[in-house]
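Duplicate of earlier report; Bifunctional coenzyme A synthase input re-posted below.
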Amino acid sequence: KGAPPPAPAASAQNLAHPPEVVLTDFQTRDGDQYNPVKQQLERYATSRYSCCPQLSSVLLCPDRGTGELPVEPLGVPPPCTIRPASPAPRSPKQPVRGYRRGAVGGTFDRLHSAHKVLLSVACVLAQEQLVVGVADKDLLKSKVLPELLQPYADRVEHLSEFLVDVKPSLTFDIVPLLDPYGPAGSDPLLQFLVVSEETYRGGMAVNRLRLEHGLEELALYQIELLKDPSHQENEEDKVSSSSLRQRMLGTLLRPPNKRPELPAGLYVLGLTGISGSGKSSIAGRLRSLGAFVIDGDQLGHRAYAPGGPAYQPVVEAFGTDILHKDGLINRKVLGSRVFGNKKQLKVLTDIMWPVMATLAREEMDQAVAQGKTVCVIDAAMLLQAGWQDMVHEVWTVVIPETEAVRRIVERDGLSEAAAYSRLQSQMSGQQLVDQSHVVLSTLWAPHVTQQQVERAWDLLQKRLPETLRARD
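Output:
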């Protein structure tokens, strides 16, 4: 500040995002758009970094005298404040000191403006090294819609690109954060920690742990939360990754499958989810919007009913003692035979799943005969049975496991242990989402679920083949 830029480096450095504008707080009373300082700044920047053509430079305060402070227009405060939370806050006119090494942590899912403020402040404070903890594994379980979190490797990649662009001179050590303390709780070389209003107490806990282990406290710098003016009623009022994940519900996450072997004029969705997820309620909402719904449970009942295509094979495989006196298959007895016995379960599914798939295809023909354009197969075992091969899109309904257990206990009268055991025998929500095109959730109020389904349906109509849209 107050001096010309230093001499250019020997070679230009490539950044993930080539700079388009270069800013400086170099002070001059010369307001000329093309003054020598700006020209020299542009030459310096292009010699150091691979910049966009026609790079422009901006003097932030060309007419301000030395020592004067900028005035916020209309009394509006800046979007964030760098203030030390410990020790006592100093006057805003005092310069923020620098430290050799510091730390910052977070989930950093879908890097957004609030993340960038937090990270930029950390880069300002650090002079040599910045340790960045990225939440993983157990720390992700309590997140809203954890199934939609970006994989750890993707989050690290985007984080690394941003940090290098912000301050290429720093050494960045990006590590998995597996507990609330991370390296900040044990690294004796760290000197500061950047926190938000929400994580300030966590920063204090880190310092208590350091004192217990004979380490010096970290200087805590607290960043104010950024308000999100476009948040919805079920979203946080701050800029957050949770809200971004909620906005993904009902949207297309990957291209649909091409299924030329399916009935012409019919678009097929496979609807699945863990037990208690509210999958059937979603199916009902889709039916009310015009979809033809195939109930997977009803397919099973038809398959092993007396005279059904799976009845005799099941009786031959498991014996006549699974029958009621009237000849119906006793589902409880059959279930006790296969529950916890993978070999016996495979025997049953090898019989049932192909038969049920055939019945499902017959119902698809009925949907076409009724003039329907969208058919939904509502089946908990959709992916396990390999039925993703006969749908254009897989739609999955997700809820937290704890909520699923609560619903199962309330609905089926099971103990919590039995409910957990049932869930453990199924594919997890994450495994289902990893193979899904659209994700929905019944976690919030019913009208929020309805809004999700209507949004998903409207978006589906826009991507239906043109021939199907014409029929509608």
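The longest helix spans residues 342-369.

Merging into the original ticket.
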